[in-house]
Every structure is written in C-alpha cells, then in structure tokens.
Amino acid sequence: MFELSKSKSPTVAVFGLGNNGCRAVDDLQKHSMTGITYRYADTSEHIRGQLTGIHLAFILVDAEDYTNLNLSRLVSNMQDVMEISTIVLDTAQTNTNVLMNTVKFIADLIINPGLINLDSADVRTMMPTHNTLAVLGSGQAHGEDRAIKAAQAAIASTSAEANYLMSAGTCLISMEGNVDMTLHEFESIMNEVATFMRPDVNFMMATVFNPKAQDKCIVTILTTNFINPSETALGINKANLLFLLGA
C-alpha cells in the first residue's frame, strides 16, 4: 500500500466546469498552490481534450451541471480507461476553503516527497465511485507527543464527537512536518486514529515534508464512504464537509 519517496512528479490539474466551477477555480488560483495547473471547460468534451499527461484531476462543478453535461460518463472513462485518478467536487455545497484544503491535501500526498508517499493509483482506489459526502479535518501540535496531539486535534476540528469515524469505510491521513518527523510518530498517528474506526476500514496514510512546519506536526484526515452519510452530516461542522460526485 505504501512505497518509499519517488522522484517522478505527477501532473495534477484542477478543472472548472460551468459557471460555478470556473468561479471556484478562480478562487483557488489566488492561493498559489504549487505543482497544480488550472484549466477551464464549458463541456465534458472540452475537458477530454485537455487530459494528455494528467495523472490526477480535480473537477469542480455543481451537481446540476454535472448531470446536464453527462459528466459521469467522462469521469468513468478517465478512471477506468485512461487511468486518471479523478475527484469531482460539488461547488454548490462545498465552501471554497474546504475545496482548497482538499485539493492541496491530496495533491501534496503525491507531489511532495516524504518518508512514505502515495501515487495517483493509490488515490484512485480510495475515492468513492458514487455521490456521497466526505469529512476533512486538520490539526497541529508541537513539543512532546506532538503527533498524537495533532491527530486528536484533527479529529476534534470536525465534530465534538469522534463517533462519526466508526461509520467511515475509507480513511486517508497525512502527517506533515519538517525533516525531523519520524516513523514512530507516523505509527502513533495511525494507532490513535485506528482506535476510533472499524477494523475493516480502507486505511491509507502518507507523509509530506514541509520545511515551513518548523517543529510542528500537522495531521490531516479525510474520511468518506460512510454507512449512513445523511446521519453523519448532522454532527459535522459544515466547514469540514465535502460533497463528492461519482461516476
């Protein structure tokens, strides 16, 4: 599931489709995230013509345009035939900060070096293929036991209760820090989060080197494929909710 840091640089693109999607891309570009290209499209065919060399694609679109433009067929083709990991985010129900944090979180895992990296194929196996919600939380800490404290802060950032984690079918975690982060800290984060989750959860974790983190450990957790998404959403801070559109 994990592999050592790779030298290749996967190509990541964010597509804005329709008026809302293009506005969302405009907002994301203001944050100058490195290693990501931004593209605009009016139709699914316009996206198809811009896919050469892409390993990971985010498509920002609202649910109405997704349906009207028959985007599900293209997304299925991108995933299954072209082997492009594709994540479709509903811009009408997800705020800009969560969109930005999600794109950065997933892109960093496959672009930036770390003790343990993911690739675009790993991401493709993790993401749901149907319309559903996801929860994104992040926390940071420094000093003694910083890794466990950062993991606890990431869980607490999304909800007053950690019970929602037990209904998640998929969990993707990143540990971000300076070059002094250790595999022991990595393992302590995995163990801390695992205590709240089902034994059969599809669990994946990677690390990202970030010199600007200094002595901090930053943990980000994305959970999805919930047993009962609508019930889960009731207890989650709206600022942490994502709405994913599947093929």
TrEMBL record:
SUPFAM superfamilies: Tubulin C-terminal domain-like (SSF55307)
Gene3D superfamilies cross-referenced by the UniProt entry: Tubulin/FtsZ, C-terminal domain
Domain of life of the source: Bacteria
Keywords: GTP-binding, Nucleotide-binding
Residue intervals of the Tubulin/FtsZ 2-layer sandwich domain: 116-235
Name recorded for this polypeptide: Tubulin/FtsZ 2-layer sandwich domain-containing protein
Signal peptide, first to last residue: none
InterPro entries with a match to the protein in the record: FtsZ/CetZ, FtsZ_C, Tub_FtsZ_C, Tubulin/FtsZ-like_C, Tubulin/FtsZ_2-layer-sand-dom
Pfam families, per the entry: FtsZ_C
